[in-house]
Amino acid sequence: MEWGLENRISKIIRPDTGRTVMLAVDHGYFLGPTSGLEEPGETVKPLVEYADTLMLTRGVLRSCVDPQVDVPIVLRVSGGTSILGELSDEGLTVSIQDALRMNVAGVALSVFVGSDLEKQTLLGLADLVDMANDFAVPVLAVTAVGKDMVRDSRYLGLACRISAELGAHIVKTYYCDDFETVVKNCPVPIVIAGGKKIPESDAIKLAADAVKRGAAGVDMGRNIFQSEYPVPMIRTIRAVVHENLTHKKGLNMFNDLVADENKAKKKSKPKAKAKAKKS
Ligand code: 5RP
Predict the structure, then answer these.
(1) 219 C-beta closer than 6 A to ligand 1
(2) Which helix (H) or strand (E) segment is 140 a member of?
(3) Has residue 272 got a pLDDT over 70?
(4) Which residues are bridge partners to 73 per DSSP?
(5) Is 256 helix (H, G, I), strand (E, B) or coil?
(6) Distance between CA atoms of residues 239 and 257, nearest Å
(7) 26 in ligand 1 pocket by Cβ < 6 Å?
(8) What domains can be seen in the chain, in order of their start residue?
(9) Whose CA is nearest to atom 12 of ligand 1?
(10) What would the pLDDT profile of 110-159 be if each residue is shown by its tens digit?
């Protein structure tokens, strides 16, 4: 593999574990001010040190993230739709030159296999791979699932394999029964999205099951930033992904971190009151 491309991929997927914890905060590109991402900069700040990669849009990167932050960026470069319209009608929203100006490690685009606009989005992926190839930038294909699509291994396996065949370097999909088959049939690394917010224990289990069955990690958003305890959550997911922590051990870790956080909060409260009294 070309040096530049390999170098960029190694910034996204840790070479020592072959896995990654991508923090996805790109939801606003079609959902607007998503719960937990009202002020994306504030959301990201305490979490970024535990993320291997940050996935977001150009606008949020430029206006909300400190340029000195030490985290590789996977820039979402597809969009142009909203929750009110036809979601699959996406186009390219950022040129590869502008992505490079932001020093990205990779670019991401959604494909909508099975939708009326499947061809448009798949050819969009192929075009992006061609453009990104010129600059040795890896492409992450997001296998977005339309409302009428079933998230089973047959559908997700189809979407992942097609994305890889068209040249995606990494594919993002959803965890499903028989996930091993999806992984086996896809020649490039697969990361899983977390999906809608579920109880922390379930999200930890999802990550543990996914990596056990061959995922190269997670590209997780809502189950981290919508948690009441986002820092304990991302730290736990990180340990599950990179240290193979089981669901049970992960849950213990999460509960310990939550207890520590609550203790620290309690400790800092009386001090604040004492200060207020003095002044
Ligand atoms: C939207 C995306 C999101 O980044 C993706 O869904 C990951 O976030 P979450 O874990 O909240 O599902 O690509 O198309």
Answers:
(1) yes
(2) strand 139-143
(3) no
(4) 54
(5) helix
(6) 12
(7) yes
(8) 3-278 (3.20.20.70)
(9) 195
(10) 999 999 999 999 999 999 999 999 999 999 999 988 777 889 999 999 99
